[in-house]
Amino acid sequence: MAFPEIVAPPAWRTVDLISDLHLQPSEPATVEAWQGYLDTTPADAVFILGDLFEVWVGDDAAALPGFEARCAEVLRAASARRPLFFMHGNRDFLVGADFAARCGMTLVADPTVLLLHGERWLLSHGDALCLEDKDYLRFRAQVRTPEWQQALLARPLEERRTLARSVRAQSEDRKRSPDMVWADVDADAARDWLRQAGATSLVHGHTHRPAVHDLGDGMRRIVLSDWDAAAHPPRAQLLCLSSAGAQRVDLR
Amino acid sequence: MSNPQVELHIKDKGIITLELDEAKAPKTVANFLEYVTKGHYDNTVFHRVIPGFMVQGGGFEPGMSQKPTGAEIQNEANNGLKNDNYTVAMARTNAPHSATAQFFINVADNGFLNHTAPSAQGWGYAVFGKVVGGKEVVDGIKAVKTGRKGFHDDVPLEDVVIEKAVVKA
């Protein structure tokens, strides 16, 4: 199966990759850091590789004044300056075409190949490769179907907000249980994807464990950092792709 | 006079020996030694573990209950010491001069944490020493499995406990 490809125009010198900001109203410092970053980055394009939002209950949430609408304004302003690409994460998989259009963002599939300066970068959120977490993968397969999403989105907005809170609480409980699966990206699956993509570098988020893993045969897996600007020392990092390769940039 | 050294005895993992730079970070070192000698760090945990960044501890008991601390100290981040791999620095709140007991060990070169200007954004984080023994223990801590507990992210799923911190004779 061929993965979708985005061919960078020759004018793009640098492309920023960010993920796992988990934006939410209760974390204003991270929201502010994110806005400051989008206002000032010199990158020619920005790819958001999933979990920009802690939760997304439907694009209609952004039609009302509030947190989602404020984020839409920030994204709209950013996309007016440079192309903005959005990939779904496991928290914000319900972001839809309406919200993307409103923000001037392009939704991209997971995974997508980015062709930049002759290099093929395989971009993913990463959750689909955590094969050990079978319960989650079953849930993921279910919630990514149009039928499931249509049925959920047909419910009133407030009901969806309540549902999201209870799902999140259950998920936190599950993570505390001692027999929880602590899944990481499966190395064989990652190599398989890279071969299919004709690429040597996979870049993903999701696990919140930033690192570069050597996958053998000249292949590697680069893990993005999550963001937490309220913590001290703070965490707000992007990966900048250019003709020089991939470079981590810490924001302060 | 040689620099003071502190041993962090990590349960089931081994001993981390820190050498403290008394000349460059006199106030921070005195503050840290005071917490060590009064036993503050005994039975505290490394509660924030992020590989490729830093491991932070000294503020919570197992179970994530926060320990009371003393007064906030002046930030000595402008002392020329850099947040390089295996250095130890003080954690703090958003205010530059707000460190008390919590510290972190850098597990990467974190240049963006260094002092650049005497401003809220630029103060940086005060390095006051470095790991001179037990680097493999630090490497073991940064490799533990982490998750979210309450409002905290990146918390080890199994407690990483400082059984005791002692000043090396």
Automatic annotation (TrEMBL), chain B:
Functional note: PPIases accelerate the folding of proteins. It catalyzes the cis-trans isomerization of proline imidic peptide bonds in oligopeptides.
PANTHER family: PEPTIDYL-PROLYL CIS-TRANS ISOMERASE CYP38, CHLOROPLASTIC (PTHR43246)
Catalytic activity: [protein]-peptidylproline (omega=180) = [protein]-peptidylproline (omega=0)
Root EC class: isomerase
Family recorded in the similarity comment: Belongs to the cyclophilin-type PPIase family.
Record protein name field: Peptidyl-prolyl cis-trans isomerase
Ranges for domain PPIase cyclophilin-type: 14-167
Keyword terms: Isomerase, Rotamase
InterPro entries: Cyclophilin-like_dom_sf, Cyclophilin-type_PPIase, Cyclophilin-type_PPIase_CS, Cyclophilin-type_PPIase_dom, E_coli_cyclophilin_A-like
Keyword Isomerase: yes
EC number in record: 5.2.1.8
Molecular function (Gene Ontology), one example: isomerase activity
